[in-house]
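Homework-ish question, so no full write-ups if that breaks the rules, but can someone show me the predicted structure for this set?
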Amino acid sequence: MSFFDKLFGKKTSADSAKERLQLVLIHDRTDLTPAELDSLRDDLIATISRHVSIDEHGVQIDVEHDGRSQRLVADIPLKAVNRRRARRTK
Amino acid sequence: MPAQVITITSGKGGVGKTTAVANLAVALASSGSKVVCIDGDIGLRNLDVILGLENRIVYDIVDVIEGRCRLKQAMIRDKKLPDLYLIPAAQTRDKNAVSPSDMTRLVKDLRNECDFVLIDSPAGIERGFRNAIAGADRVLIVTNPEVSAVRDADRVIGILEAEDKGPASLIINRLNATLVKNKDMLSPDDVLDLLAIDLIGIVPEDENVLVGSNRGAPVALDQKSRAGQAFRNIARRLKGETIPFIDWENQGGFWDRIQRLAGRK
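A: Not a homework solution, just the prediction itself:
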């Protein structure tokens, strides 16, 4: 890491190593490839859409970790129209 | 008291497993504990040369398991450290000569013979690794602050957890304080953050380790070596003592400090 790299705020090689490892380890630990995660996402969207209408583009699925335990976190925004329709049918 | 059985493993090869076993064995044996090391790397025997005992081998671990000799006959006693014994690996090409249940039985027989049994695991996660962890009470994982070594260590930690062999403890080997300061090497904190297991020691990169291997006299015997000191500290932690970790950030010495003051680092 040269002086100029630091001066211009270039990412350090240790930082790259850590960030790359964080991603790799998530997949290693869960045996979930990015492609599998995508297909899981599509399945989730399809299943949930059958019950409630959701904003497909806002769906976020991530594997988060706390120590050595992993969790699948899904953030699924519902479409606002639902609420209005629900009120009207009452 | 029955012996503590400790397996040293890593996943990746070449990170310093055998060196760690040799140094911990020497450190434990020179501080009053009776130690038996087992080289679990069948076909790629190495712990004998690192310990300087290569000329004294008559029987090996496969001879014991197949009943060609008694256990005591395969235990080579170090002449300089009378509390240190080695059971060498076989150089046969048949890696399946030993099974996990053979190892468990062997370790059980050794429990009443000594204070510590140290098992040097081969690299990888196959048969040899399974054998090495079969009888272990405790597992130490050796890693280097480097992407491939950390990744493989994580795989091994996962397997140990699944087999209920955890929690393992981590040895970070070959830490280069200058590279860490320049942000060109993962720091111990980075590695611990990624692997999320307990630390038992940080061993600085030290040329004396190679010199020790060349001579068959592990560096833990060298009172002046920094790596030797780190291994002696790990040995004391294994005995249950609480020893503060070496301040790796101030490992550079006088010249290092001058250079840093002059802004060259």
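Now go work out the reasoning yourself. Hint: The CA atoms of residues 37 and 118 of chain B lie 5 Å apart.
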